[in-house]
Amino acid sequence: DEDSVGVTVVSHDSENRTLVDGFQDPGSYSCNVTYQGISRTASSVHCEQLTWLNWRTCKQFIKHECYHSQLLYNRDMYGWWVSRDGENMKNWGGVVSVDYECTCLNNTCANTNYGCNCDMSDRTWREEGAFLKDKFMLLVKQLRFGDALYYSDKGYHTLEKLKCFGLI
Predict the structure, then answer these.
(1) Cα-based angle 43, 131, 160 (whole degrees, multiple of 5)
(2) pLDDT band at 82, cuts 50/70/90?
């Protein structure tokens, strides 16, 4: 519960909305996320102590805006985030432990034939955004994207601060 006593907010160097353009192959764009107070080479044990052992819940908002650019279409992962253990995560916010899905499955998809809004790959700005809440996977160490090479293909990513609530 976020109203509980105790909150930790961890800032990082990738909080600004960032353009993804000029990268076609899946995951060819890479953004390493460096957190304040946590070394780039911090072990997963150190991250686990921050996000799992000490806090009841943790969350981190992630968003990808897309224009004629796919994310997880037909199990072809063009974009993903990397967990603290280095695992390529095949879901995009708000969907716990479900592969190749986005939060738009909660009846907000622009087209129900696609698991993600971005997978329509049309010439309309669309987005995927939600809180990541699986504290066993947080914190986000890296963002990877592709399908943004040609003049009409582009995207933006935003990753907010990690927030942990409620001392156990």
Answers:
(1) 65
(2) very high
Contact 103, 130 (CB under 8 A): yes
Beta bridge partners, 58, equal 164
Tokens standing for 58?
């943790």
- Nearest-angstrom CA–CA distance, 101 and 156: 19
pTM of the model: 0.84
For residues 84 and 75, give the distance between their C-alpha atoms in angstroms, rounded to a whole number: 23
CB-CB contact of 138 with 82 (8 Å)? no
Q: What's the distance, CA 30 to chain centroid?
A: 12
- Would the pLDDT of 69 be above 80? yes
Calculate the CA 73 to chain-centre distance. Answer: 16
Query: For the chain, how long is the longest CA-to-CA vector?
Result: 50
The residues with which 10 forms a beta bridge, in sequence order, are: 162
Residue type, 70: Q
Alpha carbon distance 167, 148 (integer Å): 42
Average confidence score pLDDT of the chain? 82
Residues 113-166 have pLDDT tens digits of 887 888 888 889 998 888 998 888 888 999 999 888 888 889 999 999 999 888
- Judge residue 56's burial from the number of C-beta atoms within 10 Å of its C-beta, 0-12 exposed, 13-18 middle, 19 or more buried: middle
